Amino acid sequence: MSAETDVEQHELQRATDLLVASYSECGMLHHLSHQPLPNREAVAAILGDLYELVYPGYGKRQNLNPGNIGYYVGGLMENVYDQLIEQVKRAHQHERCEDDADFHCDREARRTVLDFLRRLPHIRSILERDVESAYRGDPAASGHHEIIFSYPGLEAITVYRIAHELYRLKVKYIPRMMTEFAHSKTGIDIHPGANIKPGFFIDHGTGVVIGETTDIGENVKLYQGVTLGALSFDRDETGEIVHGAYKRHPTLNDNVIVYANATILGGMTVIGEGSVIGSNVWLTKSVAPFSVVVLDNPQHKVKGVKTRTEMQAEIMYQI
Q: Residue 43 to residues 31, 79, 82, 181, 251: CA-CA distances in angstroms?
């Protein structure tokens, strides 16, 4: 081994020692000496199977019919049941079993997963109304198949509907992992704790943010870039932010439309039924039912027309 290689190995070992030492110094950035956390790849695979169960015939297996659907769904359900129990148990073990000797993680995980799987027909009934709302709300939609195959808004809503049921069953980590998978793919960030009634449609969708304590009524439509966020946070006596699901995000009642890049903030902010919120509006106060909120027309300045040669010369000069 050459002297140069000896130096490299020494420096590599030194870098390793410094990194390991940092695990003690930066205690929040490791998960050592604990039960294993839910596995990202496993949760993503489970979500893929759940998508198959919600929309049979649209995914990996497309030659389904009334004769074979029961066999196919039965196999998927067994797989999801087994895999999800392991991940829910891991979430319980980390969050509850380490501190509560009377909490039986395996038993509770099995009960939770069975409760969740029994809710899948209910999730599908809500999603059918979401798909119908998308079709009625988008003249560019050629039909329900196109919406299910290709609309990022529906994908994000579907993942939210699944994750929300796990959230309601008090499963830690996994619901947020699922909605963040959808967020990374679609650009739509819906917290699994939000309460969203049927007939929800997100058109285009990129940049939409829906906070944890948001309440959304029936047949609400959002466009891209809409933020339903918090105006302020409760703080404790030391000035630290209080964590938890206290009401800090707005309420949108039935049949509200919110256009692109509008921002609506605050737990006390209520958008009344049938109201329309225009693009780029910033709202921190409630709006009465059947209101229309828009910005005043901005002033536009249009310069005189130039020839192509003049424009190219001006651009080159700026460069």
A: 19, 12, 12, 10, 31
In whole angstroms, what is the distance from residue 140 CA to residue 65 CA? Answer: 29
Structure tokens at 225: 């870039």
Can you state the angle between helices 152-168 and 40-54, rounded to 10 degrees? 110
* pLDDT for position 308: 75
What per-residue confidence (pLDDT) applies to 116?
A: 98
CA dist 179 and 169 (Å) reads: 16
Kindly tell me the burial class for residue 32, based on how many C-beta atoms sit within 10 Å of its own C-beta (0-12, 13-18, 19 or more): exposed
Rg (C-alpha) for the chain, rounded Å, is 25
* Predicted local distance difference test score (pLDDT) of residue 268: 96
Whole-Å CA distances, 283 to 75, 231, 248, 267, 268? 49, 10, 14, 12, 11
Q: At what angle do helices 69-92 and 174-186 cross, to 10 degrees?
A: 120
Using one digit for the tens of pLDDT, what is the confidence trace for 142-194?
A: 999 999 999 999 999 999 999 999 999 999 999 999 999 999 999 999 999 99
The CA angle 168-173-174, to the nearest 5 degrees, is 70
Q: Which residue ranges of the chain lie beneath pLDDT 70?
A: 1-4, 29-33, 95-103, 315-319
Contact 153, 203 (CB under 8 A): yes
pLDDT computed for residue 26 by the predictor: 77
Beta strands 189-190 and 276-277 are unpaired
Cα dist from 147 to 95, 129, 131, 143, 209, whole Å = 38, 12, 7, 7, 21
* Amino acid occupying residue 311: M
CA distance 57 to 74: 15
178-216 burial, b for 16+ CB within 10 Å, e for fewer? Answer: bbbbbbeebbbbbbbbbebbbbbbbbbbeebbbbbbbbb
Question: Tokens 């069975």 identify what position?
Answer: 114
pTM of structure: 0.86
Length of the chain: 319
